Amino acid sequence: MLRRYRTIAALAVAATIAAIALSGCDDGNDGSNESADGVTSIKVGFIPIGVYSYLWRAEDAGYFAEQNLEVELVPMAGGGEIIPALQSRSLQFGISDALGVINARNGGIDATYVSFNFAQSAEDPVHAVLTGNPEVSSPADLAGKTVATNLSYNTDWTMMRMWLRQHGVDPESVNFQELPFPDMLAALRNGTVDAAGVAEPFYTQGENDGLRVLGNYFTEVRSPVVFSGMVALDSYIEDNEDVVERFVTAIHQAINDFNNDPQVARDTIAEHTEIDPELVASMRLGEWNASSSTEDIQFWVDAANSEGILDGGSVDANELLWRTG
Questions:
Q1: Reduced to 3 states, what is the DSSP secondary structure of residue 44?
Q2: Using CA atoms, how far apart are residues 236 and 303, in angstroms rounded to an integer?
Q3: pTM for the complete prediction?
Q4: 172: CB partners within 8 A, 6+ apart
Q5: pLDDT confidence of residue 21
Q6: Staple partner for 258: which of 105, 224, 241, 265, CB 3.0–4.6 Å?
């Protein structure tokens, strides 16, 4: 049912090899190409899941074509793979969560959001802590237990730690185990982990399979919370501002379609993934925004500081959003 998710890692390895091969190259070519008829070809790294389905919608509805863009969507594992590919110019745009961009900036990489656009709220959370362990009935029971998170030092890991503290649990007392989202439900069923921080569609699938929800670890900490979007490098933006404007216009048209009629989002997800249609019909969608503010990302800068992720470094939230507001 979710077989497509399992191809992401292999695709990411290929993209990483390409990025490494091109890194350090400075031939003045930013990777995008414009044809004689004015059509610009670009490559966009993304995770092929519902969160980023507005990219499929922009392609299907012809919004990219209307902006004279020929867009190749490149499936990848996440910001940790995408940002190096942006550096190598094998991509022009890509997705990343907030901590990916903050870590990049802290490391001297000029990553900037051109559209910080996906959020969730207490009314429609897309992340939850699930458990199948009968000994775990509340967050307090997670002390001394093993909890799955998809990656350390990202938004999920950071929110999980903040959520645990909110419930009186010292995160250092929890054994975090990194697992890809598609592997978490099986790990819960076989007892490899005691709880897992999952995201849709695995949140709804886990509930349907009888797993219990301990809480919504993103929205219990902050609601609403914007946590991911489309990224480019400042150097690319400065040289290709017209392309950036056209690209953002197209994806914001798609986002507006989703907000005007959520069924369009469900239909798009169903068409482009192998998720069971019944699951698509019932899964939580979250929220897409066509605009955001510095305050939205300042939350993540503060969280990174509180978790020691910046290790004494300094990141200015005002530099992380292109044309904020």
A1: strand
A2: 28
A3: 0.85
A4: none
A5: 38
A6: 265
